[in-house]
Amino acid sequence: MKHALPSRWRRPRTALSAAAIALALGGAGAVVANTAIATGVDGASGDPGLAAPAAPGPTDSAKELRGRLLNAAEKQAAENKDQKQQAATEGSATAGSQKVSPFIVGGSVTAVSSSPWMVQLGYYDSATDEGYFCGGTLVAPNKVLTAAHCVAGLDWVENGTVQAGSADLGAGGTTVGVWQQWVHPGYNPSTVRNDIAVLTLNQPLKQQWLRLAASNDSALYKPGTTATVYGWGLTSGGAGAELSAKLRKVNLPLVADSTCNSAMRTVLGKDIFAEGSMICAGTPATGTDEGTKSPCNGDSGGPLVVAGKVVGVVSWGVEGCTGKGAYPVFTKVSAFTGVAQPRIDDTNLSFDGRADLMARTPSGNLYQQNSKGKSLAKRKYAGNGWQSANWMLQADLDRNWDQDLIHRDKSDGKIHRMYWNAAQEEWKDQIVSTVWGGYKSYAIPGDLTGDARPDLVALDAYGSVFLYPGKGNGQFNAKVRIVNKAWKGVKLIGHGDLTGDGKADLLVRNSSGTVYLYRGTGVTSKPFATRITARTGWKFTAYVASGDVTGDGKADLMARDSGGKLWLYPGTGKASSSLFGTRISLGAGYNQYNLLF
User: Fold this and answer.
1) What is the per-residue pLDDT for 27?
2) What pLDDT, on the 0 to 100 scale, is given for residue 229?
3) Is residue 152 within 8 Å of residue 187, measured between CB atoms?
4) Among residues 272, 248, 175, 164, which one has the least CA distance to residue 209?
5) pTM surpassing 0.70?
6) What percent of the chain has pLDDT over 70?
7) I need a surface site. Which of 182, 290, 474, 499 has the fewest CB within 10 A?
8) For strand 211-212 and strand 309-318, is the pairing parallel, antiparallel, or unpaired?
9) DSSP H helical segments within 192-274, as ranges?
10) Is the predicted pLDDT of residue 15 greater than 70, yes or no?
11) Which of the 8 DSSP states describes residue 434?
12) Where are the beta strands (DSSP E) in 141-245?
């Protein structure tokens, strides 16, 4: 039997029943401007003198968003029918071979309570009458992991809708818009390589989210391991098939790369499968619906899940999804965690995916300078009354996408967390009671333990370092000693992934100005690998590690020299003395601040 070239289960054209199309629309949303923190409200809890963080909010009503989702599905339904008719007319299995179409064949209906992170993605452009439907996975309160072929070339900010919290296609749950979109820069629609994307929502969702498979999670990919794929896609490869009105799932065994490569080469007559960046799951399709278990049209972008982690993203397969001998193919998530995770953890003060700078004067005034990539915007007044803080850090401890200000107050010697309470629309002051305030140096690199919660490291006067695993609510679990009296007199620096493997790293500077890189491992008992010398002779008066300043997915470093000039050291992702690229001047006059963070 002759088969089509890979059917990129992209922008799956899906069909809806008349009943589903007729689902009622309802709800409304409020418009919130996206402006930087400026001079503003006082009187929040703890009286921080900070204005409300002006996060992006919904610009379309829930009714408009849901209508967009249903229009997208309706357009896909029409295209699905056209493809089937064309194939029947031409009598060729290659008809429509460049179309993408994923679904759950041979699966069963499942409840959203068992997969609360599963979301529906609808794209509809009223100007062109173009619509697509895909699945996605909530991987942070405001982040959705999906396939690049669902996003590339489309304006999801203008025309996209995300629906969460419902197993019903196009109904119930919560509908939100898209604030930003990121597509892997190496995505190739011809070869379906690098088929991964991240959507940033215009407001956070309360549903539980899933973690990505880490770069060293090889055990999750052992052939024969049972994985589960989810979606609303077609439940049949035959003519007239429609999207499922209910969320479905099917269990599939993981397949060895060599087996999949050989099978798909035989089926397609050419090499498409890329070992190392793609995976297969299931058993060879039978040629008909009977005996076939597979995703198909409409399931594109949805997750393949093992042990509570996303190991794959529905990517492509053969036209019709049931071609004899074929397997469904997924993007191998662990191969892309290094580039995708920074897009998921990019919370910052200005909500644009670039880390920003905060500075304090001796009088206690705070100023914010937003990153423009390789320069900083003009400073804006951000609050007052902060003269009692003797150090401050930026970190989103509860992963709600609003940046927190963590600091030690010298008046009481305690660690405080100033965070924005969206429900009460005010700043709250929380004492971090689980961390001692008497350490010599602190850093919050990110997730060091592999549970997707930001962790804290602290150095005592004797040179011992302690890891405090984050609870995800602003507090931390019991400390773990990770260095025993060997780092006396050093400074801890770091926030984010410096080496491009998806794990948070730490920088340590000693008294002679040597900076060491400690790569994160994701293991609590030994969170850092053997140190690597990154720089020597650095005698800067301040270091700022707020994250990815340039927006390229790699953590960067800012440093102030004795003359008051601020320099940006862009990260390269190279775990060596080439950790940073050529420095870039960010301006002078920074000696007027006695605290940079």
Assistant:
1) 24
2) 93
3) yes
4) 164
5) yes
6) 84
7) 290
8) parallel
9) 257-268
10) no
11) T
12) 143-146, 160-164, 174-176, 178-183, 197-201, 211-212, 226-231
